[in-house]
Recover the amino acids of this structure.
């Protein structure tokens, strides 16, 4: 048996009841995309039951409405952990529920404490440019020329718990940037920061472009995820995309750091087409919806990215054997019509397609960790510490 978890990064489906506390009241990534892009949308996701998911919290998605007999089981999940970021969302999907939110730095300049700046500059041997909360695409245009002249990395944050380091690949080679990030990871551990992110870019003044050599360096997990639990129980576990970075490669038998949705979808399709001789979990993140379109508030681009996923799904579903399971969900929201450029605190859709089985209403789930518990049911292992199985 093979189970695949496909995370459409930031594809939220309606503001959570506590969204106002996060500054996200009224956000709804899927709905607002559908409202702004005319016509029929995402036929495969529609037939699986995406519109039925939406109907549980906020009514129909225009062009992707609820269907009478979805081919998948459908529901939505509310996040228990106090956050709306990649690490918090993926960890909860894998059964880790956080009680304490990750630390976020000041949105005002200077963002970082003086002692952290001093430690960074001493440990890396390089001065810091930036020290501010900013859009990643905007700050490299603003400070890129100074970076070329000085060789100093651009260091910035956002509303999320991140310490981001941008550098031109010809000034600070990618491997050296990764080394600086590993040093920084140790420095920000005491601040309880979720991720240090390498943000390489290329180009010339006024025309800088970020490359796909981004890499995330996550904080260590408070306890083992369901990936480790399943691996110890004899399940072959596979990470695709940035899953390995998010989980520090722990609990993964194989880890493929494919970059971009197209490559990650193809890797997963190939995996599904292999002759299955063992129990296997494939866990992939499709980051383009969030990184390229959500944060940049590009509604049309976000729609097209989901359309690419939708187009790839039939081939992936055809590759499943009877009893195999495909779970489609998200890790948070990033409403491209909402104010600012940050994530939004939202419900996420839950679509569970099992070859040879009919769909049912899974309702509003009280935590993403229901996915982890359901994996334990499917693979017939000891229960996970959190969550309620939907099988």
């Amino acid at each position: 048996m093979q189970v695949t978890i496909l995370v459409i990064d930031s594809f939220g489906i309606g503001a959570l009841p506590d969204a106002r506390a996060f500054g996200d009241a009224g956000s709804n990534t899927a709905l607002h995309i559908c409202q702004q892009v005319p016509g029929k949308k995402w036929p495969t996701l529609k037939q699986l039951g995406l519109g039925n998911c939406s109907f549980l919290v906020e009514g129909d998605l225009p062009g992707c409405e609820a269907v009478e007999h979805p081919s998948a089981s459908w529901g939505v999940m509310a996040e228990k952990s106090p956050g709306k970021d990649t690490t918090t969302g993926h960890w909860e999907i894998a059964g880790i529920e956080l009680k304490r939110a990750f630390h976020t730095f000041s949105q005002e300049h200077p963002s970082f404490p003086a002692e952290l700046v001093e430690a960074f500059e001493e440990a890396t041997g390089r001065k810091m440019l930036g020290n501010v909360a900013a859009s990643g695409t905007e700050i490299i245009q603003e400070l890129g020329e100074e970076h070329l002249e000085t060789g100093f990395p651009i260091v910035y944050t956002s509303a999320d718990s991140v310490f981001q380091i941008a550098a031109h690949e010809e000034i600070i080679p990618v491997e050296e940037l990764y080394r600086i990030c590993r040093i920084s990871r140790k420095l920000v551990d005491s601040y309880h920061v979720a991720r240090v992110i390498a943000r390489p870019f290329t180009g010339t003044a006024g025309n800088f472009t970020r490359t796909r050599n981004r890499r995330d360096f996550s904080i260590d997990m408070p306890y083992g995820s369901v990936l480790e639990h399943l691996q110890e129980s004899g399940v072959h576990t596979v990470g695709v995309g940035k899953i390995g970075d998010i989980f520090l490669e722990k609990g993964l038998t194989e880890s493929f750091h494919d970059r971009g949705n197209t490559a990650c979808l193809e890797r997963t399709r190939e995996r599904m087409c292999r002759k299955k001789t063992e129990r296997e979990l494939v866990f992939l993140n499709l980051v383009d919806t969030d990184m390229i379109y959500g944060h940049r508030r590009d509604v049309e681009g976000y729609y097209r990215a989901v359309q690419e996923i939708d187009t790839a799904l039939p081939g992936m579903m055809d590759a499943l054997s009877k009893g195999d399971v495909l779970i489609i969900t998200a890790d948070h929201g990033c409403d491209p019509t909402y104010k600012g450029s940050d994530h939004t605190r939202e419900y996420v859709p839950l679509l569970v397609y099992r070859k040879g089985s009919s769909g049912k209403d899974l309702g509003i789930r009280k935590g993403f960790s229901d996915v982890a518990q359901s994996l334990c049911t499917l693979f017939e292992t000891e229960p996970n510490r959190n969550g309620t199985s939907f099988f």
Q: What stands out?
A: The domain at 2-97+221-378 is CATH 3.40.720.10 (Alkaline Phosphatase, subunit A). The first helix runs from residue 29 to 36. The mean pLDDT is 96.
